[in-house]
Structures are given as C-alpha cells and as structure tokens.
Amino acid sequence: MSLTDLPSEWFSWHGLMSAIGLLVFVLGSHALGQRRHPSAAIAWVLMITLLPELGVPLYLMFGTRKLPRAARRSPDGARGADPVQGDSVPPWTRRLTAAMGLHPAQACHDLHIHADGRAAREALLRVVDAARERLDVCTFILGRDDFGAECLERIAARARAGVRVRLLVDGMGAWMGGRREFAQARQAGVQVLRFAPPFRMPWRGPLRGRTNLRNHRKLVVADSRLLWTGGRNLAGEYFEGSPGRPAWVDLSFDLAGPLAAEASAVFEADWVFSQSSRPEAIDDAFARGREAAEAAAALAEPGAGAATAQLLPSGPDYAEDTVHALLLTSCYRARSRILAVTPYLVPDESLLAALCLAARRGVRVDIVMPARSNHRLADIARHRPMRELAAAGAHLWLAPQMVHAKAVVIDEHLAMAGSVNLDGRSLFLNYELMVGFYRPQDIAGFARWIEALVADARAYQPRPAGLARFIAEGLVLWLAFQL
C-alpha cells in the first residue's frame, strides 16, 4: 500500500492535527518561557508533525517545563538585601539571586554536616522529635522498608502528641519507593498528600503538563525553626542500608534559624499546589509562607550575626532556572577550584562549556561520581561529557560505591548542597532545593566532605568511543535527558 492509496480525508485530518499540535507547541513555549534545548525542540516538532496523534497527547502530558504562573516568583527589583558587617555573601551572588526572585541570604546557626548515614538518621529523628506545633516533611521516595516504617511511626507519634504534621510524597516517587498507602499514618492524624500523581484521572483534576514535573525536594522542618535537608530520600539505602541493600554514600545536613522558616514557605506552596490547580491559591500560599519567613528573620536573636546561608529552590514554579544560572555564573567566576559530587553527570551544553573553560584557564576542576550508578542510561550518557571534561584538563573521580550526594564548592566563596543532580532533569524539570553557604568554615566543611570521597576514588581514564557507542550515547542524550 502506497501513500497514493490513502484517502484524501486522512491527509486532511493528519494535516489538521499537525497544525493544531504545532500551534499548541509554539504558543505554549512562548507563553510559558520554556526555553528548550534546540535538540528537545526539534524532537517535539518532528513528533508532532509526523505523528500528531501520538505527539500532541504526549506533549500535553510531558512537554510543560514551566508553570503558567511561574513568573509570580519574579522580584519587584534586582537589588538584594543591604549587606551588614561581616557579611560574606559575594556582591554578584546577592544581585543575581535577587534578580531571580530568591529570598536574600540569612543568618543560620548550628549547622551539622552529617558524616554518614547513622549521623543523618540521628539528626533526622532529632528534628522530628523536636517539633512541638508543626512538622512538615517532603520527600521524593518513602521506602517500603524498616527505615521508611520507622520514619512514618516517628512522624505519626508527633501527630498523636498534638503536633500538626504534614507529609508530602512525590506521586511518582510513591510508586518507585513501593509505599503507596498511608492509612495508618492518616489514622494517627498525619495529613498526607501525593504530589502530582502520575495516574490521576481527568475527573480528579487536569494534568496540565504536570506528569513530567516531579518534586525532588527533601526537607523536614520543625516549627519553622529547625531544618533537615540534603539529597537523602527516606529509605534504608540512603542511610544505613538494609539486608541485601547496602547503604549509599549521600549528603545531608541540618541547621537552625530563619532559613527553616523560608523552607516552610517553599513547602507551603508545594502543599497547596498538590491540592489545587488554581494559580491564585498557590500565589497566596507562597505569599503567606514568605511573610512567615520574613517575620521569623525579624524575630531572630540579635546575636544571630551576618548572612551566612541562602535557600536556593528551583523548578517549574520559578520563572528562572535558578540553580542552573547560579552554577553557570559561578563556573565563569571561579578562580582557583571547582569541587563537585553528583550521582549523574549529564550537564547541558552551556554548563559543560563553562566547566571545560574553567579547567582550560587553570581552575582546578574535580568532580566525583559513582563508578556505576543506579541508572544505566545516565551511565551511558555521561561518557561524552566526561571525555570533553577530561580533554579540557578536569579531574574526574569514580567512587567504588553508589554515591547519591549532590554538592558544589566554588573557590572559598560559595558551597551549594541539596537535591540537585548535574543533569537536565534536575536542572530544568524537577522541583529541587539547594542551600548556598557563604561562611568560610561552612564552605570548608563541605569541601572536606567531598575531598574524603576523592581520596577513596580512582581517576577516570577516557577511552575513544566506537561508532556503536557514539551513536548510543547520542540517542540517550537526545531522547532520555532532553524531553
């Protein structure tokens, strides 16, 4: 059967669907400021044009990268908070983060960088038990294992004690972690929501392109005064392991101060978003949370000191790609070293170029990752950027165990740690949370943590890729990490 044998009505229908799909793509990308990578844009256009019956529904489900009201987080002006005596925040960082609508850096105290999974578990339970009025918990995965059960029980105990407890689990993460029912926690008084469940039926609320936008933030906030956060999901392998599942190397930390109240503001907006699709409701929740954070900062003890840390949320709810912009600018401003740890190294072209140029101009670039991660596609895709980085003079280190930590140290001026991987999904699609640190002793603490991994890792030795591997890497980079 040839194309000439097809009825003319088929071509008319196909052409109409293609035109409608392209119109949706163009208007959506323009209105929402998607700023896609060229290869991603080409892939969507080809799919919508050639297979509109499949491409249009997929685009409506997975194509959105920014929410319609993401610009609500934009600032009134590009001026950051006035520096105070002893403020270690670089002026360029203050201006850049203010221009992207981020709250200025604040004083924080009692920072504890967890040495291992045991220390992380003890700190987590300590923060949970310290809650007297409100406890907010957000995680991508809550494991169906002993550790996940312990976390749920400790959270439920606070609810039974009269604390208002809210638990937010990503809709996809709930399936990945195997824990999809929370009946006992709800009976204890815990309020539980799943963030954008992937299989929500149309009559339960519109998908609105949210299916591909996952909440990857991890945080526990007690009474808006204590914050536990980092890269760990609430499952055994992220802490001390379990029988048959050895512990991964991960990074988390806890602190006290006004920064915790601001983390509550981020949680509040995510919580309301999980309940309502109305942008106005999300705006109101974020405004209330921001006011609470500012009130907490105003009530901080006079001896709290100068600004030392800054909350760095990123994702579809922000008009700018905040963490990506800060990473990119930091790489270009680096003078002596860039030290990073990530489980998946699949940066976009701009970040890859910034890292390579930093290495070529003499900046010491060290990046630690697992010799083999838990995502085979990521391991295939990473070799092309790794070869480019090695050719530019960067030092890449392969740890013998699975490393799930996420942190970057730039010179002696900035350290960022939290949930962002150095890949396209974390940088451009997920709801993420990092914390930037500016106090020299805090930066040195994160640097020592990463350097300890380097000491046990082996250096990456690049090998030329054959034709088959080169094609496979290109396909994975084009399809799996760009759409």
What's the CATH first level of the largest domain?
A: Alpha Beta
Strand order of the largest sheet: 8-16-14-13-9-11-12-17
Helix content: 40-55%
The CATH superfamily of the largest domain turns out to be Endonuclease Chain A
Distance from N terminus to C terminus (CA atoms, Å) equals 33 Å
Mean pLDDT: 82
Q: Tell me the structural class.
A: alpha/beta
By DSSP, the count of extended strands is: 17
Instruction: Domain count, please report it.
Output: 3
Biggest sheet record: 8 strands, mixed
Number of helices: 17
Global morphology? globular
What is the CATH architecture annotation of the largest domain?
2-Layer Sandwich
Output the CATH topology of the largest domain.
Answer: Endonuclease, Chain A
Q: Which residue ranges are poorly predicted, with pLDDT under 50 across at least 5 consecutive positions? A: 74-80, 201-209
3D architecture notes:
The protein is an alpha/beta fold. 44% of the residues lie in helices and 17% in strands. The chain has helices at 8-32, 38-50, 52-62, 91-99, 117-130, 146-160, 171-176, 183-187, 258-275, 279-298, 322-333, 349-360, 376-381, 383-392, 424-428, 440-456, 467-480, and strands at 109-113, 134-139, 164-170, 191-195, 219-222, 226-230, 252-256, 309-314, 337-341, 345-346, 364-370, 395-399, 407-410, 414-418, 422-423, 432-437, 458-459. The strands form 3 sheets. It has an 8-stranded mixed beta sheet, sandwiched between helices. Strands 1-7-6-5-2-3-4 form a 7-stranded mixed beta sheet, with helices on both faces.
